Amino acid sequence: MGDDTVPPGGVADLRPLSRVREQKAWYWYDWANSAYVTTVATVLFAPYLITVAEKASCGFITDSDKGLDCNQDLSVLGLSIAPGALPSYIITFSTILSAVLLPLLGAVADRTENKKGLLAGFAWTGAAFASLLFFCAGTNWQIGAIAVIGANLCLGASTVFNDSILPLISTEDERDRVSSRGWAWGYLGGGILLAVNLAVVTLTPFGLSTAMAVRLSMLSAAVWWAGFTFIPYLRLRNHPPQHVVPESGGLVQQSFGQLWETLKDLRNYPMALTFLLAYLFFNDGIQTVIASSSTYGEKQLGFGTSVLIATILMVQFVAFFGALLFGRAAERYGAKRVILTGLAIWMLIVTTALVLPEEQLVPFLAMGVAIGIVLGGTQALARSYFSLLIPKGREGEFFSFYHAMDRGTSWFGTLTFGLVFQLTDSYRPAIFALIAFFVIGGALLLRVDTARGIREAGNVQPSVI
């Protein structure tokens, strides 16, 4: 048997070593942005903004972090909004904007060599928006809304460029492993910063109030996101565009033209399209559980901020091992089977949340362990599985459609969660309602023929699918 690392002519092929170097650099962006996703989007933003909005609805400022009992709604653009539902509506709005803007950015990604520069530019802009959360205080909930809408939009844009790089730095057989390690690094990095923030919020050193500790923790996530983005920016290489659709005009005009051609061409990739629809549902369910978990834990189950941060911290480190475990399982059983198993576990999780007892820490922690096991694995494998179904040269566009529905920017899920809470005044039926997203997503995923999808995209079939 010949050595496939030595091409004809006897000269050693150094491409595998080059790919490994770039893969290690690429992992760092998951490490960088997960600090924002974990500290801000998952743990602190929603409960903190609800507290600020409750103060605004009552018409005065208080130092209490426990919320108020005046039961007044906010008036937002003429609409009556319950403070408890405000974060869900803000995330929904940011996702609608993403659905409009990200596909155009995907077309730009496919036509440019400097993907890493655009990745970093959006990351640094998003971190700047996130830093504005430090100034969300008193009754000024509006600045918090602007900060998170801007940060979520830039997070979605940066991950379009980040994920479009994945097929450029890995072969089809390497995708599940590389994607899973990226997610694992993300959970490890987010968990380390969260551990620091846990100490700050719990101990409130230097005479800090709890509110100030929370604001400093959210600011630290913005700084972390911006700082560690320098590693992939400096160490990744630029890769020339491949198989670009010929269009006239400047880059923006060309990108609109390519986007239109891709939209017309989607019917030629029915398996990729079916997976996108499946992902729309099951990822919205996952992201809504993540975004709403701290609100559910504090407002429904009665746990304080320090308990919530400690639980999410535990989830982060469990998810680190869960992502690696799911990656190993995919190598043996195929990504699709492992994703479906993960969705079944998600259904059990939201069903358990319906009856979880209040102020009982052990059951709450047990549910957190279950979330951690499936959290990173399902998301990492969804990313690598989708990369097999998309044609070369159009990674940016296809991942832009993918990321219009991606983490922290759920659309139907957060809207459903907010509406059910508005109607029932309880977070239990709100979180249980998300089971529909896992059922529908799983049913659609069952309809995806993996081998056919890989053939349609013109990719090489991995040894295990």
From TrEMBL:
It is a multi-pass membrane protein. SUPFAM superfamilies: MFS general substrate transporter (SSF103473). The chain crosses the membrane at residues 28-50, 86-105, 117-135, 141-161, 182-206, 212-234, 266-282, 302-326, 338-356, 362-386, 398-421, 427-446. The keyword Membrane applies. Keywords: Membrane, Transmembrane, Transmembrane helix, Transport. One of its GO terms (molecular function) is transmembrane transporter activity. It is found in: Cell membrane. Its main location: membrane. GO terms for cellular component: plasma membrane. Residues 271-465 form the Major facilitator superfamily (MFS) profile domain. This is MFS transporter.
